[in-house]
Design a protein that fits this description.
single chain; 2 domains; 37 strands; mainly beta; eleven-stranded mixed sheet; UDP N-Acetylglucosamine Acyltransferase, domain 1; ten-stranded mixed sheet; Udp-n-acetylmuramoylalanyl-d-glutamate--2,6- Diaminopimelate Ligase, Chain: A, domain 1
């Protein structure tokens, strides 16, 4: 499952895509219909993908996509089944094309569809506080609680035995069973994705969602952005403390514990059984292995292998850190 919420306005012919990208392509033998735009992991033969960094070289060589938006320096790392479409700026081009497939994913204005929960089918199904609003395409499981002044905006599925705190806003999110969302959270809104282009900022469409698996707890004031080209995922039995920010496309494994004021930048992958101390920061596009422990206040700028303890800035093996700071 990728995104069951945003409407895909495809297919778009490859000739039309070439026009949108404003490029010239030699030896194009077909006018194939392209169904969707996806990342290198999930793209199939009917999709177009993108490749913008050497970090994804190993993944790129196995992509099943028929076409890939990329650069002159990266094109040779693609498999023969995938034709490169050469552009100057990959991410700007991807943004322009994604907005054609998913025009409703760019902006995140307030949800005009919301009505009082007392006017919905849920009024006798869940326990709720004062001034609770519900949007379109929302489902709520049994034995759920929703606190005062909370808004469950459009496109939200909440499982059984969940508790949503007061002053919380949720949209474009799937919440599984036995999840606790504490007060003041914002979940499923547009991430911090834009590109400066000719003295203005181009907003990047976010077509992913947030998925929170069973038995999780999300602390007060946490913000979890929905994915841009994939989903943001919080694994089973993972607990987040207060005032944590999880950026778009981040994937956190199972049984992890993250202390207050931690920030995880976009597209980083956190393994299972990970412990992160308060006020640590993790840069984007990193892989943090299983059973890793990150000390409070650390700055992680490189990927960390399994079963490692790190601390400091830049984060390093904890024995080395302690030796240097006696």
């Amino acid at each position: 499952m990728f995104n069951p919420f945003f409407k895909n306005y495809g297919p778009i012919s490859i000739l039309e895509i070439i026009k949108i990208l404003n490029i010239k392509v030699d030896k194009l033998n077909s006018n194939q219909e392209i169904t969707d735009i996806k990342d290198l992991y999930t793209a199939n033969t009917s999709d177009i993908t993108f490749f913008h960094s050497k970090k994804y070289k190993e993944i790129a060589k196995d992509t099943k996509a028929s076409f890939c938006i990329t650069t002159e320096t990266l094109k040779d790392d693609l498999p023969k089944n995938c034709k490169p479409l050469i552009v100057e700026n990959v991410l700007v081009s991807v943004s322009n094309l994604t907005s054609k497939f998913y025009p409703e994913s760019i902006n995140d204005d307030f949800d005009e569809t919301v009505i009082s929960i007392s006017e919905t089918e849920f009024k006798d199904k869940v326990k709720f506080g004062k001034n609770v609003l519900i949007g379109d395409n929302v489902s709520l499981g049994s034995n759920c609680y929703i606190g005062h002044n909370s808004i469950i905006e459009k496109n939200v599925n909440i499982g059984n035995n969940c508790s949503i705190g007061s002053n919380t806003i949720i949209r474009n999110t799937i919440i599984k069973k036995n999840v606790r969302i504490l007060d003041g959270c914002v979940i499923g809104k547009h991430g911090f994705g834009f590109f400066p282009v000719k003295n203005k900022n181009l907003r990047y469409p976010h077509i992913g969602i947030v998925i929170i698996e069973d038995n999780c707890e999300i602390g007060c004031g946490a913000t979890i952005d929905r994915g841009s080209m994939s989903n943001t995922i919080i694994g089973k039995n993972t607990y987040l403390d207060n005032q944590i920010h999880i950026a778009h496309n981040v994937k956190i494994g199972e049984n992890s514990i993250i202390a207050g004021q931690v920030g995880i930048a976009g597209s980083s992958v956190i393994g299972n059984n990970v412990k992160i101390g308060g006020q640590a920061g993790i840069s984007g596009h990193l892989k943090i292995g299983n059973n890793v422990e990150i000390g409070g206040g650390s700055g992680v700028i490189k990927s960390i292998p399994d079963n490692t303890k790190v601390m400091g800035y830049p984060a390093k093996n904890i024995k080395e850190f302690l030796r240097e700071n006696k």
